[in-house]
Amino acid sequence: MFVETWLLRRSIATVPEMHELLRGCYERFSIDPATAFCLDLAAEEVFTNLVRHNRSDEKFVTMTVECSPQEVHLQWIDRGVPRFEPSAEQLAVDVTRPISQRRPGGLGLHLTRSVVDALTFGYENGDMTVGVVKRLGSDREETVK
Fold this sequence. Notes:
Layout: E1 2-9, H1 15-28, H2 33-53, E2 60-67, E3 71-79, H3 88-91, H4 107-115, E4 118-124, E5 127-135
Antiparallel strand pairs: 1-2, 2-3, 3-5, 4-5
């Protein structure tokens, strides 16, 4: 099991740095490019949503990566923010309806849910936690280097 935690500056400009940190984890675990793409997409969507939509005096968002041969867990903790835990209705986007009949928002979370195996939200004592899980192929035999 490999676990790494970073403090990411609360800024959209931090996204390339976050991707670089993740790339190191992907290399360490020989994560295939398709899986890495899904994780990068989810990470960028979650992090940018936290930065754009949460109001906080905190200067950093905590990101933790946990890798095993079976799956990758990404988790963000955003401290000192108002409660937001999306309902199933907010997460469900009917992409078959014409754009003129859709309400704005939600496509990013919809896309994130479609590329990972789990997307979770939690809130406690002013701290919002968002997590994603991506399962890896069952034939993987990598060990931590």
